[in-house]
Amino acid sequence: MKATEKLHESGQSLWLDNITRGLLNSGTLESYIRDLSVTGLTSNPTIFDHAIKNSHDYDDAIDRKLKEGKSGEALFFELALEDLTKAADLFRPIYDRTNGVDGWVSLEVSPALAHDSVRTLAAAKELHARADRPNLFIKIPGTEEGLAAIEEAIFEGVPVNVTLLFSAAQYLAAADAYLRGIERRIAAGLNPAVGSVASMFISRWDVAVNDKVPESMRDKLGIAVAGQTYEAYRALVDSPRHERIISAGAHRQRLLWASTGTKNPKASDILYIRALASPCTVNTMPEATLKAFADHGDLGQALPVQARSTDGVLAKFAKAGIDVGVLAGQLQKEGAEGFVKSWNELLKCIASKSIALKKAG
Questions:
Q1: Which of 132, 169, 241, 289 is the most buried (most CB within 10 A)?
Q2: Active site residue 341
């Protein structure tokens, strides 16, 4: 049995943090589903930027849409929806078999809207309606303004992948927004089974502090914060408030580990996969990490429900001058800014391709 299958059997969903037209058209994604226990997929502007920039797979589609008068953001979302609806159809049997627990794909609203809750909600509703797939999440950042959009999107029946979470406190705020949306649906007599995941970013913690701490403390902060968040997650799903929505027919908002590719070349390439094995969660991993874990992965010990084992690690970082609360806010701010930068790079890439195709044709 492959390590990926063992991880799946332990209760954690393995999702691919990548999408390209080549993955879809070559049958590679289907092989990952069949052979590596992949049960979902996530995307972001950086992924699409690289996919479009580093291949000719999108050239014909871009050329066709240019002739239809499309450009910029509108053109991009048509490309993304083509890819993600095809991927959603591949995962649909898993979605149906698990009654909507698994088998999801994710599309992000424009990161430029991260601090505009009204326009974020409008974009989320529009994109989900255009996709017309029940197993497509709309990614909304868990910023202060994003939380209001998350609650309203859930209330209106739009499944949400809450992105850019970095701490237990940020996770709990996102979970509260989800719960409020579901509770309002229940009060209004609406079906409360609206899917959601809360995406906790891991490796960026270690990138931020590795050059500020002794070697013995490197690549340990992200895992410690994850342990603290997992404890908060398990406590929440065992709470009376959560039990009430489950009893009414709602789904659990699952915790998702994101940014789980190892950035330190001296560390194990499966560091965050091994360390974050945990039932009732999702790990969305880059393609190289997925392949590495399939090739030489092993599970190790599951992440403990009680995070007391991480308390000592966090205390060491505090003693070294790392304020986890302050850094969480900084990482979320930088993450939002980074996504805007990637979004602008993506639009520049599409514009450049458009000019080249017009000249060629």
A1: 289
A2: no
